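Hello Y.,

Per our agreement to keep a running log of every chain we model this quarter, I'm adding this entry. I've kept the format consistent with earlier entries: sequence first, then predicted structure.
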Amino acid sequence: MKKLLERFDILSDAIIAIIMTILVLEIEAPTNSTELFNFFKEISLFLVSFMLLINIWYRRTKIVLRTEITKLESLLFDVIAHALMSLFPLAVKTLVAYEDEWLSVLFFGLLNMLVITLINMIPVIEMGHNWEKGQLSGYIHQFFRRRVWLTILFNLAAIAIAYFLGHYGTYFYLILPFADFLANYHKDRQIKDVLKDESDFRSILAEKLGLN
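Predicted structure for the entry above:
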């Protein structure tokens, strides 16, 4: 399994690189001034998609580095996540070309939510039932499990906001990848500092999860 995962990590980087390349190639150069609006729209969507992919790559990398993947289910979830990720160029193209903006945002949003959820499920699957209540592993398991549900609820709420606020909601939704990336980076820095003291980490997780 270890060798297989190492090979898949290489494939993962290649898939993301190819997706980014396709996103760039999908941008059509303007031929006159009337096409400038769509041109800048495509560039902005590319930047959003780029940040979204970087965010997914960053989150997956952190999970893989911190989690010893031993179960086939984890690898399967990872593979499905990459398969769905490959649809991002199509989702971005839909945002540009499809007449019904709401449906295109829904497609883009659900795709993003599914990919992130599948990746977040990896540590939950790996821990499974191999943890004891009150132990550090138990707190970590509950932390990641709650994170999965919060991610789903957050993305559904963002999609709903995009629907009810129209164009403004769409712009709000599209800037979320930037905020999400910064939030994940900040959380990882905090976890890195806290992990130096396991007892402190346990107490903080217990407080966050309301387990005190």
